[in-house]
Write a structure and sequence with these properties.
single chain; mainly alpha; 3 helices
Length: 90
Amino acid sequence: MILAVGLFLLFVGGLGHVRFPDAYARLQAAGVGDVGGAALVLLGLIAEEGWTNTGGLMVVLLLFLVFTVPLSTHAVAKGAFVRRQRPWEG
């Protein structure tokens, strides 16, 4: 069940990345989809695999994702702001 929810979040994040009109909205969709979806997929794999060496490696990967994806989306958003890209006003 956790894997299915994680895959659904990854799918919705990818769909939002394609459908949203500007860089800021796309970053929101990609960030939530990546962190939430990948975290749930990894947690589901950890629950299925158990606390073995592979489970420990997945925990390290989960921590890496949780800390690096928000930093990268912030860097891209700051780059768009510095280039004076305006948010979409619809």
